[in-house]
TrEMBL record:
Residues of the site described as Transition state stabilizer: H154, R213
Organism phylogeny: Bacteria, Bacillati, Actinomycetota, Actinomycetes, Pseudonocardiales
Family of the protein in this entry: Belongs to the acetokinase family.
Cofactor binding annotation: Mg(2+). Can also accept Mn(2+).
Entry function: Catalyzes the formation of acetyl phosphate from acetate and ATP. Can also catalyze the reverse reaction.
Gene encoding the protein: ackA
Residues given in the record as ATP binding sites: K15, H180, L181, G182, G183, G184, D257, T258, R259
Binding site for Mg(2+): N8, E356
GO terms for biological process, alphabetical: acetate metabolic process; acetyl-CoA biosynthetic process
Gene Ontology cellular-component annotations: cytoplasm
Keyword ATP-binding attached: yes
Superkingdom of source: Bacteria
The protein's name in its UniProt record: Acetate kinase
Catalyzed reactions: acetate + ATP = acetyl phosphate + ADP
UniProt source species: Actinoalloteichus hymeniacidonis
Subcellular location: Cytoplasm
Length: 370
């Protein structure tokens, strides 16, 4: 048995699992569902390692989710001084994720100095994006000087969902539209297991509106905000775009949680209704756009916390995809992965639970076995 400790630092959470990589089984897990302090993160990891020790489980490797690998860390990589230095170079591109992940890497290296530590970039799944999907229409000098390109994110989630869809629809899941909807949100078109297009780009800010992130907005508007008579500062702009926008901003600060917004909308709160409508509209628009990278659609897949657990959002998105043959006649939540569309639907719709920990464990185990 190869046991992997997975460390998944989100923008406002921390998840860690002990995984039997060979049998894809979670042996133990701990989660913090808010932005944790450094003391809380250490306490969580210490508790999980103590639990493993008391159970006689030996950790063989540690896998760290690295949201942005930048131009250097393009696949799962053993953490050494060179790869860690390269990962730090991408920290400014995902400031809510990368620094936290690398600080946790330092801690687990101290706790488990003789165990291999593996950096698993979310961007790896999109490394093979076609050039037309990866290239920004910017001056060549800028692209070359700054390495400007579309990287894509949520790769560990898309990797798992692609694999599960193939198991659920054997021989009929080669061309997929996937939506990872959670605190961060993006969509992806997959053909033959390969990412063909995705909504996030150079940073995890592009694309869909998210719980507190804006997603794509008019760059001319941002320039105007920086240069008007009473301008915002770049710090104001960053804070607003990353922490005060998305569902939170659309609902006038009511909530960034779709469960709260669905309940409020049912009671007639117009701001919550608008937030959900904008989210569904933009998700459907990005899915429809990504569909142009495919020659057919074998299935639509929802994953991520919202995608897995919010049937109202799924139905609202699918209602806007009728032109692609997608029906909004869907069943509610499931206790396991599977179909939520009617049998015989022209385009099957699936829900698949996000299992980034299993993708992380598989990546680390493959490196350890080499």
């Amino acid at each position: 048995m190869t046991t992997v400790l997975t460390v998944n630092a989100g923008s406002s959470s921390l998840k860690s699992h002990l995984v039997d990589a060979e049998h894809e089984t979670v042996l133990a897990e701990r989660t913090i569902s808010h932005l944790p302090s450094r003391e809380e993160t250490h306490e969580l990891l210490d508790g999980l390692l103590d639990e493993a020790s008391h159970s006689g489980v030996e950790v063989d490797a540690v896998a760290h989710r690295l949201v942005h690998g930048g131009s250097e860390v393009r696949k799962a990589t053993l953490a050494d001084e060179d790869s860690i230095r390269a990962a730090w170079q991408a920290a400014s591109l995902a400031p809510a994720h990368v620094p936290a992940a690398l600080h946790l890497l330092e801690y687990t290296r101290d706790r488990l100095p003789d165990r291999p530590q593996v950096l698993c970039p979310d961007t790896a799944f999109h490394v093979g994006l076609p050039e037309e999907a990866a290239t920004y229409p910017l001056p060549a000098r800028w692209r070359e000087r700054f390495g400007l390109r579309r990287y894509g994110f949520h790769g560990l989630s898309f990797q798992w969902a692609t694999r599960r869809a193939a198991a659920l629809l054997p021989g009929a899941a080669d061309r997929l539209l996937l939506a990872h909807l959670g605190g961060g949100a993006s969509v992806c078109a997959v053909r033959g297991g390969r990412s063909m297009d995705t909504s996030m780009g150079f940073t995890p800010l592009e694309g869909l509106p998210m719980t507190t992130r804006s997603g794509s907005v008019d760059p001319g508007m941002l320039l105007w905000l920086l240069t008007k008579e009473d301008p915002l500062t770049s710090a104001d702009l960053a804070d607003g775009l990353y922490h005060r926008s998305g569902l939170l901003g659309l609902s006038n600060g009511r909530s960034a949680d779709t469960r709260d917004l669905v309940a409020a909308a049912a009671e007639g709160d117009t701001a919550s209704e608008l937030a959900l409508a904008v989210f569904a509209h933009r998700t459907a628009r990005e899915l429809a756009g990504c569909a142009t990278a495919l020659d057919r659609i074998d299935a639509v897949v929802f994953t991520g916390e919202i995608g897995w657990d919010q049937p109202e959002v799924r139905s609202a998105v699918c209602a806007r995809l009728a032109l692609l043959g997608v029906s909004d006649s869907l069943s509610g939540n499931r206790s396991n992965d599977g179909l939520i569309s009617e049998q015989g639907a022209a385009v099957p719709v699936l829900v698949i639970q996000t299992r980034e920990e299993l993708s992380l464990a598989a990546e680390a185990a493959a490196i350890v076995r080499r």
